[in-house]
Design brief:
By secondary structure, the chain is of the alpha/beta class. It has two domains: 218 residues, DHBP synthase, CATH 3.90.870.10; 106 residues, Rossmann fold. Helix content is 33%, strand content 19%. It is built from eleven helices and 16 strands. It is globular, with a radius of gyration of 20 Å. It starts with a strand and ends with a strand. The structure holds threonylcarbamoyladenylate and magnesium ion. Magnesium ion (MG) binds next to loops.
Length: 350
């Protein structure tokens, strides 16, 4: 299949391109598009064949459900059985934005879209290209991140093209994603709201909006938890660079010393080495490639750069990578969740 690639400016959207892409979605085709979190690989969420095509294009296990993207609250009523009061509070505060909520689905949503589940994940993105596309497509776009299954999520169109060229109809290039990590997922189907995937909307932000404690799915936090995570996608190795990644945790000087020792040993074994460093430490490493993810205490900056850096290490054929560790509250919780998964939970404490 030949994939058409169009560049769009969020502030001055070419409506002809949006119409063409919307028509492709209505006919059951696939369109990758920018969102404020990461790029999505979109198909008509209410068409079971479109969802099957999404799984095929990504090489994704079909028990891993898709997020349905909408552009207004009215659209939510048509696809879910009930909307809890708390969900409305969160929608009021954080939609449109990087928050996904899970509801009991009704019959218009096919099982192919929800990986066989009776529940459906819904998000209202803020990116204007995404919103225009949703409106042009009939209102419901199922979209996982636009990477091949298991690879880091794309935050620029270049990496969507790398993974999806020839597999889908259209790629819309809307520049770099603002947030850089996928949305926070909150489940509402078991009574109390529960975080299934950490993201830019933090636990504290959710608790402030709801004036109550919001729990985490324990399976996300504990590497060796025996219960599978409630979001099926969280159980797969994910975000994985081609080389091996190890996180080194400890105070600044010890971490630098340890990473330099390890990279020197790797170099003696003829391995190409890389380090995910910070602005404060980047000059102290002796690896072949050192990349700063931002300032140590600015987890939002680190979130923005992380997936792109993992892809860049692949482009440079880095075989062994080390990353500093980050504070694990606030957005840092999302950063550490993705880093740990990318590293297959390999962490050295010094
Ligand atoms: O920011 C995002 O959420 C991006 C952009 C494109 O919107 N999308 C995204 O989709 O990250 P994906 O498919 O890569 O991740 C969706 C996650 C998976 O872990 C999946 O298992 C979980 O959401 N999920 C989807 N529907 C669910 C459901 N009904 N119950 C539990 N987990 C669900
Ligand atoms: Mg994904």
């Amino acid at each position: 299949m030949e994939t058409k690639i169009y560049s769009l400016n969020e502030e001055k959207i070419d409506t002809n391109i949006i119409k063409e892409a919307g028509d492709v979605l209505k006919k059951g085709g696939l369109v990758a598009f920018p969102t404020e979190t990461v790029y999505g690989l979109g198909g008509d969420a209410l068409n079971p064949d479109s969802s099957k095509k999404i799984y095929a294009a990504k090489g994704r296990p079909s028990d891993n459900p898709l997020i349905v993207h909408i552009s207004n609250l009215k659209a939510l009523e048509k696809i879910v059985k009930d909307i809890p009061e708390d969900a409305l509070k969160l929608a009021d505060k954080y939609w449109p934005g990087p928050l996904t909520m899970i509801f009991n689905k009704n019959d218009v949503v096919p099982k192919e879209t929800t990986g066989g589940l009776e529940t459906v994940a819904v998000r209202m993105p803020s990116n204007k290209i995404a919103r225009a596309l949703i409106d042009a497509s009939g209102g419901y776009i199922a979209a996982p991140s636009a990477n091949l299954s298991g690879r880091p999520s794309p935050t620029v169109a270049k990496y969507v093209i790398e993974d999806m060229d020839g597999r889908i109809d259209i790629i819309l290039d809307g520049g770099e994603s603002d947030v850089g990590l996928e949305s926070t997922i909150v489940d509402f189907t078991e009574g109390k709201p529960m975080i299934l995937r950490p993201g830019f909307i933090t636990q504290k932000m959710l608790e402030e909006a709801l004036s109550e404690k919001v729990e985490w799915d324990r399976a996300i936090i504990d590497a060796d938890s025996k219960t599978p995570p409630k979001a099926p996608g969280m159980k797969y190795r994910h975000y994985a660079p081609k080389g091996e990644l190890v996180i080194v945790e400890g105070n600044k000087e010890d971490v630098i010393k340890k990473i330099n020792e390890l990279t020197n040993a790797d170099k003696n074994n003829n391995l190409r080495t890389g380090v995910i460093a910070t602005e404060e430490t980047k000059d102290y490493y002796c690896a072949d490639l050192v990349k700063s993810a931002g300032h140590k205490d600015e987890e939002g900056e680190v979130a923005h750069h992380l997936f792109r850096i993992l892809r860049e290490f692949d482009e440079e054929n880095i075989q062994k990578m080390y990353s500093e560790s980050f504070k694990s509250d606030g957005v840092g919780a999302a950063v550490m969740n993705r880093l740990l998964k990318a590293a297959g939970h390999q962490i050295i404490k010094v």
